[in-house]
């Protein structure tokens, strides 16, 4: 009888390590999702680590293996959103997709989590108002977010799809404020109207930032100057 060769020791170790990494990622995700759900239901300040571990069905000590404090859940949320933005900016620079479509995709991707859990927007606002540590961490993430969005706007300006009479960082800031305001007002209702609200905001924003041909008067002045 021919026996199948036994896996080499390094192969067995790699398989064990892979399972360990996968299980660790699954536990972290379970804690993360449980926390976000509770933040939405109970509020950030009212949710304890014990609440989170009970909802995730793990021991309290397990929480601290993945998140040093409850605040780090919100930081992980911010980093997750930042990762989505980084991927979209990177892809946009290598794509011919019109900037209007890129920005629409960006907003839809960034609002996936609020659609899943409308109350998370209120929980994030509460945490920012009530915790100096959270506010400081989230401000750093927001700064990076604004820089990345500014790069995307600048890319649109270089492609002559976005107006160039305003700095890209200023357009990026107004864009972020408008979308966040839309999310905040929607979260108070928590109904199914987010897509409609987002589309309205996107259309108005795009009308304001899209590149536009020079006015006729400007063209005439330019021609007159060239003749002179």
Question: Outline of this structure?
Answer:
The protein is an all-alpha fold.
How would you describe the overall organization of this protein?
It is built from 11 helices and no strands. The chain is an all-alpha fold. The protein is globular. The model has no long low-confidence stretch (mean pLDDT 84).
Features:
228 residues; mainly alpha; 11 helices; 78% helix
The residue fraction in helices comes out at over 70%
Rg estimate, integer Å: 24 Å
Summarize the biggest pleated sheet.
none
Q: Given the C-alpha coordinates, what overall shape results?
A: globular
Which structural category do the helix and sheet elements fall into?
A: mainly alpha
Number of helices: 11
Strand content: under 5%
SSE series: HHHHHHHHHHH
What are the segments in which pLDDT stays under 50 over at least 5 consecutive residues?
A: none
Measure the end-to-end span. Answer: 99 Å
What is the total tally of β strands? 0
**Mean pLDDT, rounded to whole units?**
84
């Amino acid at each position: 009888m021919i026996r199948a060769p036994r896996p080499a020791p390094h192969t067995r170790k790699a398989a064990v390590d892979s399972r360990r990494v996968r299980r660790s990622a699954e536990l972290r995700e379970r804690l993360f999702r449980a926390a976000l759900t509770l933040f939405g239901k109970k509020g950030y300040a009212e949710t304890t680590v014990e609440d989170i571990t009970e909802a995730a069905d793990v021991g309290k000590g397990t929480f601290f293996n993945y998140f040093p404090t409850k605040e780090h859940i919100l930081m992980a949320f911010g980093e997750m959103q930042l990762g989505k933005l980084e991927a979209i900016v990177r892809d946009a620079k290598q794509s011919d997709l019109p900037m209007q479509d890129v920005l629409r995709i960006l907003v839809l991707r960034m609002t996936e989590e609020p659609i899943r859990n409308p109350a998370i927007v209120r929980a994030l606002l509460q945490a920012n108002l009530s915790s100096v540590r959270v506010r400081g961490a989230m401000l750093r993430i927001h700064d990076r977010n604004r820089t990345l969005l500014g790069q995307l706007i600048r890319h649109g300006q270089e492609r002559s799809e976005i107006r160039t009479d305003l700095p890209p960082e200023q357009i990026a800031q107004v864009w972020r404020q408008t979308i966040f305001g839309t999310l905040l007002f929607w979260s108070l209702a928590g109904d199914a109207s987010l897509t409609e609200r987002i589309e309205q905001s996107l259309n108005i924003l795009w009308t304001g930032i899209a590149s536009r041909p020079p006015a006729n008067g400007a063209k005439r002045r330019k021609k007159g100057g060239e003749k002179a």
